[in-house]
Amino acid sequence: MKRSARRIFNILTRCLLYFLLHASIANAQKADSLIVQDLRAERVTFSHNNSVTLLTDGQQKFDDLFKAIRQARESVHLEYFNFRNDSIARMLFELLIAKAREGVEIRALFDAFGNSSNNRPLKNYHLDSIRAAGIEIYKFDPITFPWINHVFSRDHRKIVVIDGRIAYTGGMNVADYYIKGTKVVGEWHDMHCRISGEEVNTLQRIFLKMWNKVAGQHVDESRYLNGGKDISYFRNLKPDECESRGNKMVGIINREPRVSNKIIRTFYLSAINRAQDSIKLINPYFTLNRGIKKALKRAAGRGVKVEIMLSVKSDIPLTPDCGFYNAYQLMKAGCAVWMYKPGFHHTKIITVDGNVCTVGSANLNSRSLSWDYEENAVIVDRCTTAQLDNLFDKEKADCFKLTSKSWNQWRNGWQKFKGWFAHLLAPFL
Fold first, then answer.
1. Where is the signal peptide (predicted)?
2. How many CB atoms lie under 10 A from the CB of residue 30?
3. Structural domains of the chain ordered from first start
4. How many Cα atoms occupy the beta-carbon half-sphere of 312 within 13 Å?
């Protein structure tokens, strides 16, 4: 009888160990696989043959981009919220004009509101001279009487596709303050990435769909879909240093009004709700919506290490006050909030469980979540995610941690009231 009982005990023990082992493996894979599953349910596609190179400041981005454009052979497609009429934009257009003279097709889009809202807009005479030099360039949604159309959807994407083989995306427009900073906020920090592989085709399709809509053309996409083809003629670009290069899983989430309205919200909610170990998040306009705010609180409540980085400084009024109010509420709910001091962090990233990350154009405000054209690259890769995690951890040295004490030292009564009032306006910020 004792021998039989011992045998049953041993069998049950092995079964329990087997279950625990496989449960831990399943949990380790759960966040990334379920995030992908959630996005595939929204018709987001993923490919597995990509490389992703992170460009962690303006100098890196523009150096790399200019080198790649100089080596273009067939086409350069650019879609930006704005081209600020300054030294970087002038250098870019001079380069594009030279490539157009070589026979390279140049197509450029920019948002009309994005152009008029910056302090160095492209004027009509600038556009005339650019077009006369062989570049096709169009405004998205030109501002017309009664001048309210820009209140609605804007093209906030940042996409460059070269020869259909490599693509750039992220948070940076074309402006010299990404390198030089500004008097108001000092240093301007942001993030971009370069992608090669099949997912370049998705970015190319996004661009050409918008191009045909805005330009009234019918450009056939088939000859521009070269993602995954030879890129060896692009030399001296910043390398993807991961061993997984060429084999990274990447998908593009593309917010298009009336087509994929909820996709940015779906991704962030999935990423936060599926997280089991850690979340690191940097976003400049942290007005949030109720669903994302609740998800972050729940994540902290179930033991996920939630870390958020916001800038003390900002380039616009009121919106940051709302973000500070939200940060304080999340800090009280158990999130670790780091307030970045040296300049303005315009970066828009999230990392989850060391396995999944995103780089793109979408803020966590009502415009990006509910109104504008946006796109983000979702990268399912441990090495790329670690690079962003390391960046986050490194920049904590330039932050102060938000606590009840530091909150009261930093924000006076009037500022706290402004934050409370601003959070009531979050659906409009």
1. 1-28
2. 17
3. 31-428 (3.30.870.10)
4. 17
